[in-house]
Specification:
The chain is α/β, with parallel strands linked by helices. β5, α9 and β6 form a beta-alpha-beta unit. About 45% of the residues lie in helices and about 15% in strands. α4 runs antiparallel to α5 and α6 crosses α16. It starts with 7 loop residues before the first helix and ends with a helix.
């Protein structure tokens, strides 16, 4: 398949909005134009092109609103939010690049302007958590904002913005009659960019706070609260379900037992023994250095691990990152998942190497759904055909919750 962006990392990050076309995040020509403007440019050119497009959308939104065209203003500001969210991605890392912080703030400002418009405005939330508050939004079910309805809580993974999970999942859910709650947890969005709060493995603690806040909302059915996680959220969501038993259902897209398995495989590939790789925290210094050189020599891995991973986990070195990765596991906890669980497995998604084994070990009511390249849904999180994932997941949830 021909790609839009000259640079492979830009293609990986910049193609996301194509999945959001059915949900109002972009149109194909808008993304293609940004790719054309970037051309063979660097990450600064990438940021500038997405930002220019987002600013055009915001300007058009303001003009539409001034003329009383609220629907158009809402659509345009949603696009602005989506494009600002894409702008800063290649610049991730610590210390935080001022352009990343600016893009995040502009994203949220446009998102909140959009969600305040229309007949059923979203409800901004602050979720008390561990001495601070997490940002969130309750997106009401279409045409049923004041009804007591089932709720889906959506959890991001490593690098998704709050607007990403809105377009990828929440819009489809609200069209189906679910209330949706999107939020930034530790290591995500505002909590990472503005406050430096790193990711933590005990996602049951995070989701427990979100459930507490959700139960205080008058239009949420307390017996029908589901949790859905995508990308690394496919580990975080079942981890949360292993300790938060007020959940009525869980979706893991894709299901993952742990974070460390991929690094164990890399350690063995670079000369380590399986026994030595069993505990990443105790790897030989020479092997860790070999791993570091391998990572920094590959642009995609350097972005994923050095720029993003170390920053998200709040650690300075690869060895520290490997040590923290060991804590992200369902070992000893997988049998505690009690709620019905849907596990996805897209055939070309690198995160699905251990998904079948993870599914086999579940002891709850469980369903595995495979997605294929033939369906256009074989890639990471089915981003080539996200609407197919949403149909399958929501049909399953309808059956589980009796919607």
């Amino acid at each position: 398949m021909n790609r839009l962006f000259y640079d492979a990392l830009h293609e990986r990050l910049g193609s996301w909005p194509l999945a959001y076309i059915p949900y109002g995040g972009a149109d194909w020509g808008e993304v293609a134009r940004v790719a054309h403007e970037i051309g063979s440019g660097d990450d600064a050119a990438y940021h500038a092109a997405w930002t220019r497009a987002a600013e055009r959308f915001s300007s058009e939104a303001a003009q539409a609103l001034a003329k009383g065209h609220c629907a158009s203003a809402r659509e345009l500001d949603l696009r602005a939010a989506c494009f600002h969210a894409r702008a800063g991605a290649p610049l991730f890392g610590a210390p935080v690049d001022p352009r990343v912080r600016s893009s995040h703030r502009l994203q949220i400002a446009a998102f909140e302007r959009a969600l305040a418009l229309g007949d059923e405005p979203a409800v901004p939330l602050r979720i008390p958590f561990d001495g601070t508050t997490l940002p969130g939004y309750l997106i009401p079910a279409a045409g049923r904002a004041n009804e007591v309805r089932p709720l889906i809580i959506f959890s991001n993974g490593y690098d998704g913005a709050i607007t990403d999970v809105y377009f990828a999942s929440a819009v489809a859910a609200t069209r189906r009659g679910y209330h949706a709650l999107v939020f930034d947890g530790p290591g995500q969005g505002e909590m990472l960019i503005e406050h430096g709060l790193p990711l933590r493995p005990d996602w049951e603690t995070v989701v427990g706070a979100v459930v507490d806040r959700a139960l205080a909302l008058p239009n949420v059915d307390p017996a029908r609260i589901a949790l859905s996680g995508w990308s690394l959220g496919g580990h975080l969501a079942p981890r949360a379900a292993s300790g938060e038993h007020r959940l009525a259902a869980c979706i893991a897209d894709p299901g993952q037992r742990d974070l460390a398995s991929g690094f164990r495989a890399l350690a063995v590939r670079l000369g380590g023994t399986p026994a030595a790789a069993a505990d990443l925290a105790t790897l030989d210094d020479a092997l860790v250095e070999n791993m570091r050189q391998f990572v920094v020599g590959d642009r995609m891995l350097r972005w994923s691990i050095v720029q993003r991973g170390l920053w998200v986990h709040g650690v300075p070195t690869l060895r520290d990152y490997l040590r923290t990765a060991e804590a992200f596991t369902l070992d000893g906890r997988i049998e505690r998942i009690r709620c019905p669980t849907l596990v996805t497995l897209a055939e070309d998604d690198p995160l699905t190497r251990g998904t079948q084994a993870f599914f086999d070990d579940l002891r709850c009511d469980k369903t595995l759904v495979r997605f294929t390249a033939e369906q256009g849904a074989g890639g990471h999180c089915e981003m080539g055909n996200r609407s197919r994932l949403n149909r399958v997941a929501l049909d399953w949830l309808d059956d589980v919750l009796g919607v």
